[in-house]
Amino acid sequence: MEIKVLSFPADSPPLSVIVAAKLSGFALPTDTSLPPDSAPTLLFSNGMTLHGTYVLLRYIGRVAALPNFYGQNAYESGQIDQWLEYAPVFSLGSAFENACKYVDEFLQSHTVLVGNYLSIADIAIWSGLAGTGQRWESLRKSKKYQNLVRWFNSIFLEYSDALNEVTAIYVGKKKLVAAKSKEQQGENNQSKSSFEVDLPDAELGKVRLRFAPEPSGYLHIGHSKAALLNRYFAQRYQGQLIIRFDDTNPAKESNEFVENILKDIQTLGIEHDSVTYTSDYFPQLMEMAEKLICQGKAYVDDTPREQLQKERMDGIESRCRNNSLEENMKLWKEMIAGSERGLQCCLRGKLDMQDPNKSLRDPVYYRCNPVPHHRIGSNYKIYPTYDFACPFVDAIEGITHALRSSEYHDRNAQYQRIQEDMGVRKVHIYEFSRLNMVYTLLSKRKLLWFVENGKVDGWDDARFPTVQGIVRRGLKVEALVQFILEQGASKNLNLMEWDKLWTINKKIIDPVCPRHTAVVEERCVLLILLDGPEEPFTRIIPRHKKYEGAGEKCTTYSKRILIDHSDAESISVDEEITLMDWGNAIVKGIEKDQDGNITQLTGVLHLEGSVKTTKLKLTWLPETSELVNLTLVEFDYLITKKKLEEGEDFLDVVNPCTKKETAALGDSNLRNLHRGEILQLERKGYFRCDVPFIRPSKPIVLYAIPDGRQQTGLK
């Protein structure tokens, strides 16, 4: 039953239905001859019809090939239905702004309206906004609803060709343009073009990908790129994504790492079809190894490891290379048993010892390792190498395209040759550039050194480039995703600056995070306002002057207030200053101790004074027992060099000072902070709450969030 035609009145096109059909790839002939106020109608090839905008939209949602377009389960479908019921409110002139505000607040903590995929709920609301024409465009160019604008623009950027075509016809607009600066538009155009690459021989609905981390550490920012690229291509080709743990080295792996990698994948918002383990295929891998031995394509070698490595580099064949089948099988069984003799051996592929590509010089396929495996215990004494297991399991699991970073470039020929020797189905390799960050180590072996030597507090330490580490420091996952997608699937090697990532993050958190006040406790100075209130009084003021969703806070006004010592040093006698969230005051006296340090200021209020005429706008706190103790924590890079040279030892550039704690006093409202909440301390920067208020004697711990301006080291 095919759609024959979509009919609707010429003056009221069902924009959401047309957009959904366009994105789904449906050819949708239209007829605009229906009389005014008629419901849009789908006529099918068998003569049957459906009527009503959202009935038609639900139909397209059910039959479209886009993943989870009408939700992945009944609950999500119900959530989508709620949004479809809400969508018509955008056409009601008086309710338009309230509707924008409602959706904006919802999108503060969501990337899309339902689940993790674009759905017909997004299409309905997006079309409702676009359909208002200039009214929405005017709001879109303002900074009023930044979450809503971000969401709207992200959908437009992803599907700009289709959306421009539809809106040009039905909204009377020549072209939608993201409400951004020319520089930002250039960045988006560049990122979009760099990401729009094709997988070789990919067919819609038949692509099957895998993200295959080794469970020997937590996911870091480099792994995030690989994971998100796999997700992108799986969604683009409406295919499948497998998470496969490459658990072939029991000495380095653990269930802790498995659990935390799955947690990190969830944090990144990556949906997958299944989770598998290379260890699930150990019996088949052993059978394949024995088959290759019998075919003369592999042999057991007892050459000492260092000598073996040197011979590979020099292109010298092992004396074991031409062992008889009987000798190879005998030594193979010793390896399986984990005997003393077997521990001296490894299994090598018989490829080409003279190949200029050294990865093809008889690579190791199996090694003995008596360490128990974290999943299957002591069932095996031998384990396959990644180079042997990966091409086999990729083929067995039906992977169509293996995404590999450029560090594996020289081993791609090895991957293909091993699949050829095994006689398994060929898998396409797609290569992308590895993500490298300045002043950053991404080797799990090197990161483990910091953990084991107490240089950090664990894999989720805020100084670590792990997903958990950078999120703990205050990075929004949305910023990380945007940062990685902007780079695209380029094969060019790149060394990225952290500043760019933190700048993206600032643009996300600044419009919505609440504002609070803190004063550094050491040498803070008392300012006595001689004409200040004899009895302290309070006012309820916004936590963010431009974003109502941040809520309100209670501020106490008193004649005795505290300011930072550094601010006090900047003040002169008779100078007029501005006390933020209060008004102006004139400093009349400055008291100092015998060493010349300022100990106290006196002044008078001048609330009628203009804040535009003062040089100093100061934060302050009332001198009261209600203040809370804070520990402000700043971090620096773990190494002091932007990029390590080939062969350079990272231990030579370990940063001796990477963490600084400052005691401070904070306003009483900070008692209500939750762990993970992001805020701005006025004039001090952005922070993430790591330890919330527990009791007065235990400080609230706030981690400083970089804002994209170059860090110069801790002092």
Automatic annotation (TrEMBL):
Protein family according to the UniProt entry: Belongs to the class-I aminoacyl-tRNA synthetase family. Glutamate--tRNA ligase type 2 subfamily.
BP GO terms, sorted: glutamyl-tRNA aminoacylation
Glutamyl/glutaminyl-tRNA synthetase class Ib anti-codon binding domain ranges (all copies): 513-602
Domain Glutamyl/glutaminyl-tRNA synthetase class Ib catalytic: start-end pairs: 206-510
Domain tRNA synthetases class I (E and Q) anti-codon binding: 617-690
Name of the protein this chain belongs to: glutamate--tRNA ligase
PANTHER family: GLUTAMATE--TRNA LIGASE, GLUTAMINE-TRNA LIGASE
Enzyme Commission number(s) of this protein: 6.1.1.17
Record GO terms (molecular function): ATP binding; glutamate-tRNA ligase activity
Catalytic activity: tRNA(Glu) + L-glutamate + ATP = L-glutamyl-tRNA(Glu) + AMP + diphosphate
Protein source organism: Carya illinoinensis
InterPro entries: aa-tRNA-synth_I_CS, Gln/Glu-tRNA_Ligase, Glu-tRNA-synth_arc/euk, Glu/Gln-tRNA-synth_Ib_cat-dom, Glu/Gln-tRNA-synth_Ib_codon-bd, tRNA-synt_1c_C2
Record-linked Pfam families: tRNA-synt_1c (PF00749), tRNA-synt_1c_C (PF03950), tRNA-synt_1c_C2 (PF20974)
UniProt keyword list: Aminoacyl-tRNA synthetase, ATP-binding, Cytoplasm, Ligase, Nucleotide-binding, Protein biosynthesis
Superkingdom: Eukaryota
Subcellular location: Cytoplasm
Class of enzymatic activity (EC top level): ligase
NCBIfam families (UniProt xref): gltX_arch (TIGR00463)
Keyword hit for Cell wall biogenesis/degradation: no
HAMAP family listed in its UniProt record: Glu_tRNA_synth_type2
Record GO cellular component, one term: methionyl glutamyl tRNA synthetase complex
